[in-house]
Amino acid sequence: MFHMKQVGEAHVRQNGARRRAAGRPGKVTCASKYNMLPQSDGLFRDVAKRVAAQYPDIGFETFIVDDFARRLVAAPHDLDVVVTLLAA
Hints:
Elements: H1 2-21, E1 27-32, H2 41-52, E2 59-64, H3 65-74, E3 81-84
Parallel strand pairs: 1-2, 1-3
């Protein structure tokens, strides 16, 4: 789990820094399956929330991946940056 924590933290931090550097903070959306996989995706979501709190000028939202997929199809223009945990 420690490796996942480091990867998740780096992933969210990197995207936050990119948004700032681009001069358009927007928002970061975290999509995960935290309701079914609390030890992996739940950890990822918790780490993403903690890192996002360090970027108060950038919006942050989190969705269960099923709801995120619906939002992606219905209104893709509402999404700026998406972070998610993919199993390989």
